[in-house]
Specification:
The complex is a heterodimer of chains A (161) and B (664).
Chain A: H1 7-14, H2 35-45, H3 64-78, H4 83-94, H5 109-133, H6 137-143, H7 147-157
Helix pairs in contact in A: 2-3
Chain B: H1 2-30, H2 33-36, H3 39-62, H4 69-74, H5 81-86, H6 92-113, H7 119-143, H8 168-196, H9 201-232, H10 243-268, H11 272-294, H12 308-332, H13 347-379, H14 387-404, H15 418-424, H16 426-442, H17 450-472, H18 479-488, H19 491-516, E1 518-524, E2 529-532, E3 535-546, E4 551-561, E5 566-570, E6 573-577, E7 582-586, E8 588-592, E9 595-601, E10 610-617, H20 621-638, H21 641-644, H22 651-661
Antiparallel strand pairs in B: 1-10, 2-3, 3-4, 4-5, 4-6, 6-7, 8-9, 9-10
Helix pairs in contact in B: 1-3, 1-7, 3-6, 6-7, 6-8, 7-8, 7-12, 8-9, 8-10, 8-11, 9-10, 9-20, 10-11, 10-13, 11-12, 13-14, 16-17, 17-19, 19-20
Classes of the chains: A mainly alpha (161), B alpha+beta (664).
């Protein structure tokens, strides 16, 4: 199962600081003549890791392995595979390590679940603190005074200043 | 002789750091003023010896003393003087030397300049600095000694990694370290406050310049690194979600959150516990960043240190400082008294929202960076977490922050008027709407939501100016009065406006270059042309050039407008360094307003063509310009009168405030 990716959602993230410019190391000779297929190949390449590189997608990398993988992706696409089939094929051959966006499964549940969980926890904590503190709002000022200050206040109120 | 002196000076510095970390704290616990008074001189002396050690290492590099292993491995006598100097920190040992040098420098600054600090707080903070310095001095002495000698000195060095032979190396690591280590001062003050068991608004005021300074350096350091990667790596990307980039982004996010909540603590005495926790977290993330980069635990573009002993040592430092700090926090935090109540809709409330999103975004980066390491360590299973993950998780956390950031400065303290703030932002909102409409009308192609991104950037920029426009009463009073008001405004108000405006500028650059940047990949023969946007580049041919320690294969291109007007030439090259038999891509950049033409070469192929990657990157410079504006904003805030003169409250009132903040 591939983590769902609604198109609109993905585009929204382009607005965020997170988005990075498309970076390419595709060589002229590799490109497919069919522009639609080539566009799909490019999109897929950005999701696949060059396993011998240091944190680069096969779209960015100049390594020979990345070159081979780019050709492989294009071969599968020309053979009529869907995007999901290409991904499945590569995962079967190279393992999950090849995916830059890990699939949602039991061992990545924490990875995908923690970011929203942290936000939720933060919201719950803030709400809890605000609700906890509101009732004491009026009494706090009085509670702050020490015994000596209470005496001094009493003196002032009696007009001894 | 010089390297031995440097080595010995470092050992003495370690000894002094131990003294600095132990005696003064015994003094503050037992109330012995003599022991307490040792802190400042120890910090100054420790700095003197670390500086001596650092200068000794620099001298080895300048004189190309290849009998020193570190110099032999990372330098070469043909390198220009600047690169011989910067290669001091272009390697593991030297960069740790820079780390402890900056650490000692900051400690000495606190010792020398912190004359208005309460003595106990200052003494404890310097002692904590002493612990950090001792840990890192020991790390260098035992695992990363830069002064090791080679028995038979070679005639020539191995050269610095060619990717690092760039002016970027002169600025990027020192700025990052100034940021990382700047947070160590904040950390030390937080620990000192916890040891003493009291935190008050004045604490926030003493700490704020350090937070601001560290944040400014980190902002500029990250932006500088981003620009360096952009032009050096030849892909034209500006952010790769590389673990090493994330290592610097995490302290920045935590530091940005700290910067904002320290304001609340200073002005209203609220959020004390949270501020202290963030101070600990910001430096902990700096330590984790150091661990990730220095231990070689990651395999990433930047990792150039691989030695498990080091990793374990730094891990021990991490466990000791982060674990110790958090334990102390857990024990003491409940005793700290909270002050300053506020309604949910208020300046404080807005800053809480800011902190919520910033820390969640920071946590997301943390999880995404460390999860694959943890999973592999625990189960042996290898997964990759790359840009697609961060775009999906970080983005949704940052967009709400960007949407709401203009409201914060317009809300009042304690109880704000959201409707009022919205009305005051009406002009900014209308401007943004016009921008969205205009972008839709003008732009061809690109993602459907991109014009809204442009609108958001305009909204942030206009929103940042709204507060200033209102407070100077622009268009309502004569120009002279406006100027007088502008000069009279607190610098911190200008600082906020600049920093927020800078965010808008950066966002604009990111949105536009992402949505409307274009790319051409082609194999060219001399005489052939390639078109991009409204430019035409003609490949004239290849030529060879010889540099001081490299050879360039230069491609010569003529750039014309589509209508034939000559604009200029571009000369990208493949640069070969014989000393390491390595090659780098030197991209050619041409400014077009805030945009750039970006051209890089591949390896020439046997059929006499050369692969060319050409990008048009509209408004790309705004990404880094925004960071510079943020930096200036930080500087304006730092120069605010109330930070320069320190806490202006009379001594008696201050004592009363401190008493109120004391542990109940």
């Amino acid at each position: 199962m591939i983590f769902p990716r609604p198109r609109a959602l993905l585009l929204a993230f382009l607005l965020a600081l997170a988005a990075s410019v498309p970076v390419r190391a595709v060589e002229p000779g590799e490109m497919l003549a069919n522009p639609a297929l080539e566009a799909r190949a490019r999109a897929l390449s950005k999701e696949l890791r060059c396993m011998v590189c240091q944190n680069q997608s096969i779209d960015d990398s100049e390594a020979p392995l990345a070159h081979d993988l780019r050709l492989l992706v294009r071969e599968r696409l020309k053979a009529g595979d869907s995007d999901a089939q290409v991904i499945d094929y590569l995962v079967a051959r190279y393992g999950e390590f090849v995916l830059l966006r890990p699939r949602l499964s039991w061992h990545t549940a924490a990875l995908w679940g923690l970011p929203p969980a942290v936000l939720l926890l933060g919201i719950v904590t803030i709400v809890a603190v605000l609700r906890h503190r509101r009732p004491t709002a009026t009494s706090e000022a009085a509670a702050n005074l020490s015994a000596a200050e209470e005496d001094r206040l009493a003196d002032l109120l009696r007009g001894k200043g | 002789m010089i390297p031995e002196l440097g080595h010995y000076a470092l050992m003495l510095a370690f000894g002094l750091a131990l003294v600095q970390g132990s005696m003064p704290i015994v003094g503050t616990r037992s109330g012995d003023p003599l022991l307490m008074s040792m802190a400042a001189p120890a910090a100054l002396a420790q700095f003197a010896f670390v500086a001596m050690s650092f200068v000794a290492l620099a001298a080895c590099y300048v004189s190309s003393d290849f009998s020193v292993l570190n110099v032999f491995e990372n330098s070469n006598s043909t390198m220009p003087l600047m690169y011989r100097l910067t290669s001091i920190w272009g390697n593991h040992e030297g960069s740790m030397m820079l780390w402890v040098f900056i650490l000692a420098l900051f400690g000495a600054l606190v010792a020398a300049l912190g004359t208005n600090l309460p003595p106990v707080l200052k003494t404890n903070a310097l002692a904590v600095q002493g612990w950090i310095a001792a840990a890192f001095d020991l790390f260098i002495l035992t695992t990363s000694n830069p002064f090791l000698r080679i028995a038979d000195a070679p005639f020539e060095g191995r050269d610095l990694n060619p990717v690092l032979q760039d002016p970027g190396l002169a600025f990027h690591p020192p700025l990052l370290y100034l940021g990382y280590v700047g947070f160590s001062i904040v950390f030390s003050f937080a620990i000192a406050a916890l040891i003493e068991g009291r935190v008050d608004a004045a604490w926030a005021r003493w700490v704020r310049p350090w937070v601001l300074g560290a944040w400014m350096c980190l902002t500029l350091g990250i932006a500088g690194g981003s620009y360096w990667a952009y032009y050096e790596l030849g892909w034209g990307g500006f952010w790769f979600w590389d673990p090493v980039e994330n290592a610097s982004l995490m302290p920045w996010l935590a530091g940005t959150a700290l910067l904002h909540c320290a304001v609340v603590m200073e002005k209203r005495g609220a959020l004390k516990i949270w501020t202290i926790l963030l101070a600990i977290v910001a430096f902990s993330l700096s330590l984790i960043g150091t661990f990730l980069v220095r231990s070689g635990v990651l395999t990433s573009v930047h990792a150039f240190a691989v030695d498990p002993r080091r990793g374990i040592f730094i891990l021990a430092i991490l466990a000791l400082f982060i674990g110790g700090a958090l334990s102390l926090f857990a024990a003491r935090a409940p005793l700290l008294k909270q002050g300053g109540l506020f309604a949910p809709i208020s300046r404080e409330g807005a800053l809480v929202v800011n902190n919520l999103f910033l820390t969640s975004a920071c946590a997301t980066v943390f999880i995404g960076t460390l999860y694959p390491l943890a999973l592999e360590a625990l189960t042996g299973e290898k997964i990759s977490v790359g840009p697609p993950f961060f775009n999906l998780t970080f983005g949704p956390l940052f967009v709400p922050l960007l949407l709401t950031m203009s409201f914060g400065p317009l809300l009042g303290w304690k109880r704000g008027d959201l409707l009022g703030a919205a009305q005051r932002l009406l002009a900014a909102g209308m401007l943004a709407a016009v921008a969205v409409a205009a972008t839709f009308a003008v732009a061809r192609g690109g993602p459907v939501l991109a014009p809204f991104g442009v609108g958001l950037a305009i909204f942030i920029m206009a929103g940042a100016l709204t507060d200033i426009a209102e407070r100077t009463m622009i268009l309502r009073v004569p120009l002279g009065a406006v100027l007088r008001r502008a000069v009279g405004l607190p610098r911190s108000a200008w600082g906020t406006a600049f920093a927020h405006f800078g965010i808008g500028v950066t966002l604009m650059g990111i949105v536009v270059v992402t949505a409307w940047g274009s790319e051409r990949i082609a194999a060219l023969r001399p005489g052939e042309s390639i078109d991009i946007a409204h430019y035409r580049l003609t490949f004239d041919g290849l030529l060879n050039r010889v540099g001081p320690n490299y050879r360039d294969l230069v491609g010569h291109f003529t750039v014309r407008r589509s209508n034939g007007d000559l604009i200029g030439t571009m000369e990208p090259s493949r640069r070969t360094f014989p000393a390491r038999s390595m090659a780098t891509t030197e991209a050619a950049l041409m400014q077009r307003g805030f945009g750039q033409l970006y051209l890089s070469l591949g390896d020439p192929s046997p059929d006499h063509t050369i692969p060319v990657r050409l990008y048009f990157k509209p408004l790309v410079l705004m990404i880094w310009l925004g960071a510079v504006i943020m930096f200036i904003g930080g500087g304006l805030s730092l120069s605010d009168r109330r930070l320069r003169v320190g806490a202006p409250t009379p001594a008696k009132a201050r004592a009363a405030i401190q008493a109120a903040g004391r542990v109940a």
